[in-house]
Specification:
Layout lengths: L10 H24 L8 E5 L4 H12 L3 E6 L9 E4 L5 H11 L3 E6 L9 H19 L3 E10 L11 H8 L4 H10 L1 H4 L2 H20 L5 E7 L7 H8 L1 H7 L9 H11 L11 E4 L3 H7 L4 H11 L1
Parallel strand pairs: 1-2, 1-4, 2-3, 4-5, 5-6, 6-7
Helix pairs in contact: 2-11, 3-4, 4-6, 4-8, 5-8, 9-10, 10-13
C-alpha cells in the first residue's frame, strides 16, 4: 500500500488508491475468467480427429477460437482449418504430413490409437512408435512455450514396474526393427496395447525435463473405458465383465467429451506449470486400486455375476 511521507495515507488518497486497486483486480479477474485456457488464435494440431475423443476434442478447440489442423487415417467430420491424411505406420507418411501442415505449432494433441483386434505389430507401431515419430517431427515447428498431450490408457498404469522391458522396446527407433522386436518377444512383451501405453507414459516422463529447456510441456492422460466405436473392440478382447469393472467407479463409461476436456486443460495456459504428468481420467479408479480401496478382481467377479 502506498504511503505519504508521514507513513500514513489521507482518507481521500486511501479511497482513491482502494478504488484503483479494486478496479485493476476486477479487470484481471474478468480477463482470467474469460480466457483462462488461452486458445483463441492459437495454432493447434490434432492427430486422430476422425471420431471419438479426437473428434470431440477438435470440435471443442474450434469452439474456443483455435486454428485447428487435423490429421488421421480417415477424414474428420469437423470443419477444420486443414486436414491431412497420415498413416502412423509409415514414416514417410508422417514426414509428409508434418510438412503438409507446415507453419508453427502452439499445441499438439496425440489421440490416435489401435485396439488389440489389430495385429500386435500394428498396435505398438501406431500407439507408440508412430506417435513418437510424429511428435519428434513436429517439435522443430513447435513454438517455445508450447504444449504436447497424448492419450495413453489405464492399461499402461503399471509402467513404473516394467521399466527394463519398456526401455528395451523404446530404445529401438527404426519401425521395422521395433516391429521385429515385438514379434520376437511377444511372450515377454505381453499385451501389445498395454506395452504401447506403458511406453507412452515412460516417454512422456523422460521427455518432460528435456523439453522444458524450450519451455515446452508434455503430459498424457490415462482414460478408463470410453463410450466410442472402439469400445466394441475392447469388449471382444477383454469381455464385458472386465470393462464393466473398470467402469464401476462412476457406474458408467466415460464420454468422449469427458476425455477431451482434460486434454484441452493440460495443453492450455491454465496448466502452464504442469509437465511430465500421466493423469488418470477415470472417476477415481486408479486411486482406489493403488490404495487398496478397490479390488479389481472382486469388481470383475461382481460384474460377471451381474451380467
Amino acid at each position: 500500500m502506498p504511503c505519504s511521507s508521514t507513513g500514513y495515507l489521507s482518507r481521500a488518497r486511501f479511497s482513491t488508491w482502494t478504488a484503483a486497486w479494486c478496479c485493476t483486480t476486477e479487470r484481471r479477474t474478468t480477463t482470467l475468467a474469460q480466457d483462462i485456457l488461452g486458445y483463441a488464435g492459437k495454432r493447434c494440431v490434432v492427430m486422430g480427429c476422425f471420431s471419438g475423443t479426437g473428434e470431440a476434442l477438435a470440435r471443442q478447440l474450434v469452439a474456443l477460437g483455435a486454428e485447428v489442423h487435423g490429421a488421421d487415417i480417415k477424414r474428420s467430420p469437423v470443419e477444420l482449418t486443414s486436414f491431412t491424411t497420415v498413416d502412423l505406420k509409415d514414416p514417410s507418411s508422417i514426414a509428409s504430413g508434418v510438412a503438409s501442415i507446415g507453419g508453427e505449432i502452439d499445441a499438439l494433441f496425440n489421440v490416435s490409437g489401435l485396439p488389440q483386434t489389430f495385429p500386435g505389430e500394428d498396435v505398438v507401431t501406431v500407439n507408440f512408435l508412430g506417435i513418437r515419430a510424429w511428435t519428434e517431427a513436429c517439435l522443430p515447428r513447435m513454438r517455445d512455450g508450447g504444449a504436447i498431450v497424448t492419450v495413453s490408457s489405464l492399461a499402461g498404469m503399471a509402467w513404473l514396474t516394467k521399466q527394463p522391458l519398456v526401455r528395451e522396446f523404446m530404445a529401438i527407433t527404426d519401425f521395422t526393427a521395433a516391429r521385429d522386436w515385438y514379434t520376437a518377444n511377444k511372450d515377454r512383451a505381453g499385451d501389445p496395447y498395454a506395452l504401447s501405453k506403458e511406453a507412452i507414459n515412460t516417454w512422456t516422463q523422460i521427455s518432460a525435463p528435456i523439453l522444458m529447456e524450450r519451455g515446452i510441456r508434455i503430459n498424457c492422460t490415462m482414460p478408463s473405458p470410453i463410450d466410442t466405436p472402439m469400445l466394441n473392440d475392447f469388449k471382444q478382447i477383454a469381455g464385458d465383465a472386465v470393462l464393466g469393472a473398470f467402469a464401476k467407479a462412476k457406474g458408467r463409461y466415460s464420454t468422449p467429451e469427458e476425455q477431451a476436456l482434460p486434454l484441452i486443460l493440460l495443453n492450455s495456459d491454465a496448466a502452464g506449470f504442469i509437465s511430465g504428468v500421466c493423469l488418470p481420467v477415470d472417476a477415481g479408479l486408479a486411486g482406489g486400486l493403488a490404495t487398496g480401496v478397490l479390488d479389481i478382481q472382486k469388481m470383475i467377479a461382481e460384474a460377471s455375476a451381474a451380467a
